[in-house]
Amino acid sequence: MTIIPREGAQGQPHMHTAFVLFKTEPSMERNVFMALSDMSAITETHALYGEYDLVVRVEAEDSKSLTKLLMGDLRIVDGVKETETLIVVDY
Questions:
Q1: pLDDT digits (tens, 9 = 90+) for 33-65
Q2: Which residues lie below 8 Å from residue 15, measured CB to CB, with a gap of 6+?
Q3: Distance CA 58, CA 91 (A)
């Protein structure tokens, strides 16, 4: 059996995408922002006003890689107090 990966826009391989909202420890917003910006799987990092301090867009080649990033890498960033993950689905 041959598995053919789904393709996204312009024939690109389908990536697994999630948006992650972050609450940081007081005065740690910039440090967390910089640490997240250095991660290769994070394609966008934005500071926010409101309930959450930051939002990032994460892309991974497969669901296992996405899980490792969400359950491991993002949880150990110094200054992260709380996260909320929104996993993108296809229609």
A1: 999 999 999 999 999 999 999 999 999 999 899
A2: 8, 59, 60, 61
A3: 19
Question: Does any domain span residue 62?
Answer: yes
For 26, 27, 30, 53, the CA distances from 62, given in Å and listed in that order, are 34, 34, 29, 27
8 located within any domain: no
The answer as to whether 3 is a domain residue is no
Total domain count, the chain:
1
Domain range for residue 37? 13-87
Q: Is the pLDDT of residue 88 over 80?
A: yes
Report the distance separating Cα 4 and Cα 9, nearest Å: 16
